[in-house]
Amino acid sequence: MQARALTKQVSGNLPATKPCGRYVLQPGDVMYVKSMNYPRRYPRYYRCKWVLKGATDATKITVTCDDFILGDCRTSHLEIADQFYSRKFCGNVRRITKTSLNSNLRLIFRTGQATEKNGRFLCRVSASGVMTTPTTAELPQSSCRCGRMNSISTVVGEVDKNEYPWQVGLVSPPTSKPFCGGSIISDQWILTAAHCVQRQSFASMFVVIGEHNWNYLTETNVTERRPIVQIAPYPDFDGISLNNDLALVKLASPINFPTDNRIAPVCLPPPNTLFGNVNAVITGWGLSQGVLREHTVTTLTNSECSALTSGINQNKICTKPETGKNPCQGNSGGPMITASNGGRSMIQIGVMSSDYDCSRANSPGVLTRVNNYLAWIQQMTAGSSSCPPL
C-alpha cells in the first residue's frame, strides 16, 4: 500500500488531521490524528489505526496528546505500540508523550458500547532524525543483510508476511504443521532448541522456510519445505533441567537468499553482553499454529529471575512474568530478538526453551542464552555463508 502524502501546513484553531491509514514520515514532518467527531463525543463500536513508518532507519516517531479524555479501558482506549512497547491509554490523562524505539509506531483507537460524555483526543505526531539517502556501499540491494525486518504489522500481535524472514517451522510428516520453531542463521544452518530435536532423525524431519499462515498453501511464493542432513544438539544438553537447550540443524542444500529479503538470516548477538532489562520480541505460531505472531517481552537479570524460579544459571535468560499472557507455550525453539546497531538490525539473544505456562503469576519465561554458545555455533557452521548486518 502506498503511503499517503503528508501535509506539513496546518491552519485555523483545529489543525488538519489525518484519517486512519499508513504514512511514511520524513524527519521534520508533522501530522495530527484525532478521535472521530472531535471535539465532540466519539461514536460507539469504532476502530481506527494509524501505521507510521519513518523514511529512514534512524527516524524516530513521537506522539504527543494534550487533549485526552476516553472512557473506561474495558470499553475505549488508544493503544500506542512500536516493535518493543505497547500500552493502552484511557480515562482522563493530562498529557501523553511517547517516542518510538525504532522507526515504526502504531496507534490503534477502539471504542465499545459506552462512551465518555466528553470523550475525545487530539494528538500531534512528529518525526525526528537526519534525512539521509543510503549509498550503494551502505545498503547494496543485491546483497543480503542479517537481521533486517521487512514491513511492519498492521494487526497488533500478528505480523506481516515474511516480516521476520529468518523464522522457520520444524515439521515431521504426516503432520503438516510445526511442532517447534527455529531461525535461519546462515545459508545452511537453523538454530533451534535441543529438546525439539532430541528424538528426531534427519530422515523424518523437515524445515519449512518462508511460511506465514499454515492454513493456506499458496499464501507466499517463497515457502519451501527443505530436507535436512544433520541434527546437532549441544553436546552437554540436559533434558531434565533443560540446561544447554540449544541445537543446530543443517539443510541438505544452501538457501539462495533473495534480493527482496523475504528469506534472510537473523544476526547473532555479540559476546559478553547480558541483555538484562531490555525490550525483546518472541515470534512463533504457538499452540494455534495459524498465523505467525509476535509478543513483546522485557528481560530480567539472572539475579531477578533466580528470585522467582530455580535452576537459573549463566546459560539462561529470562523474561518478566505476564499474567494473562502466554508467550511460551507452543513456540519452543523459536527466537527471541532485540534491536541492535541503532535499531537497524535485529539480533537473536534467546532460544525458546521451557514450554510451561509462563502466564502464571510470578513465573518468568526461561530461554537459552545464545551468546554463551557463539564459539560452538561458529565451529559447527564453518564453511556456510551468512550475511553481515546493516
Protein model, in words:
Strand 11 and strand 12 form a beta hairpin. Helix content is 4%, strand content 33%. The protein is mainly beta. The radius of gyration is 22 Å and the shape is globular. A 6-stranded antiparallel beta barrel has the order 10-11-12-15-14-13. Strands 16-17-18-21-20-19 form a 6-stranded antiparallel barrel. Residues 1-12 and 132-142 have low confidence and may be disordered. The chain is built from 3 helices and 21 strands.
What structural keywords apply?
single chain, mainly beta, 6-stranded antiparallel barrel, 3 helices, globular, disordered N terminus
What structural class do you assign from the helix and strand content?
mainly beta
Query: Helices and strands, in N-to-C order?
Result: EEEEEEEEEEEEHEEEEEHEEEEH
Give the assembly state of these chains: single chain
Q: What proportion of the residues is helical, as a percent range?
A: under 10%
> Overall 3D geometry?
globular
How is the biggest beta sheet arranged? 6 strands, antiparallel, barrel
If you average the pLDDT, what whole number results? 83
DSSP E strands, number:
21
Low-confidence stretches: 1-12, 132-142
Give me the side-by-side strand order of the main sheet. Answer: 10-11-12-15-14-13
DSSP helix count? 3
Compute the gyration radius: what is it?
22 Å
Strand content: 25-35%
| N-to-C span | 25 Å
